[in-house]
Specification:
This protein has a single domain (24-146), classed as Sandwich (Immunoglobulin-like), CATH 2.60.40.690. Helices cover 18% and strands 54% of the residues. It is built from 2 helices and 10 strands; from the N terminus they run H-H-E-E-E-E-E-E-E-E-E-E. It has helices spanning 2-22, 25-30, and strands at residues 32-42, 45-54, 60-67, 72-80, 84-89, 92-100, 104-114, 125-131, 134-140, 145-146. It has a 5-stranded mixed beta sheet. A 5-stranded antiparallel beta sheet has the order 5-6-3-8-9. Strand 5 (84-89) and strand 6 (92-100) form a beta hairpin. The longest helix has 21 residues, at 2-22.
Length: 147
């Protein structure tokens, strides 16, 4: 009897733990949505698109910084919005906006090489922004959406 209760408690705790990472309250709090998609375009060659949507709460300078997936190498930038400054430094991509406008989506597309399968590639990052004169950070733990 105790064994079944313990299993139930562990199962329920596991579900709560999982959903605590799936729902990012800071993204909702600051009106920022980050989507990352990836598609295979050649032998060990992938194209990554990062879309950042800014609602109506954040104005001004902002930055998104993410580590490249493990065992991958940056190949080249494909496209970006005109207001985006994009660079790669120390195995990190950095996307900088001098003025992040309200209710806009900003996109950056680049290619990378990796011997790992597309399902095993992960890229986490941080979004840094300003709201009402105060800086905040949003941890981006979302997974790639496959195209």
């Amino acid at each position: 009897m105790i064994k079944y209760r313990l299993k139930g408690i562990l199962f329920f705790s596991g579900i709560l733990f999982f959903f605590s990472f799936a729902i990012n309250s800071k993204q909702n709090q600051y009106g920022i949505t980050i989507n990352k998609t990836i598609k295979k375009i050649g032998n060990h060659l992938y194209q990554v698109e990062i879309d950042v949507y800014n609602g109506d709460l954040v104005n001004g300078i902002a930055k998104y910084e993410a580590k490249l997936p493990v065992s991958s190498d940056f190949v080249k930038e494909v496209s970006k919005d005109k207001t985006v400054n994009f660079k790669v430094e120390n195995r990190k991509i950095k996307i900088i906006w001098m003025y992040l406008r309200n209710n806009n989506t900003y996109s950056t597309v680049f290619q990378l090489k990796s011997n790992r399968s597309i399902q095993k590639l992960k890229m986490t990052g941080n979004f840094y922004g300003h709201r009402e004169g105060k800086q905040f950070t949003i941890k981006d733990t979302t997974s790639f959406l496959l195209k």
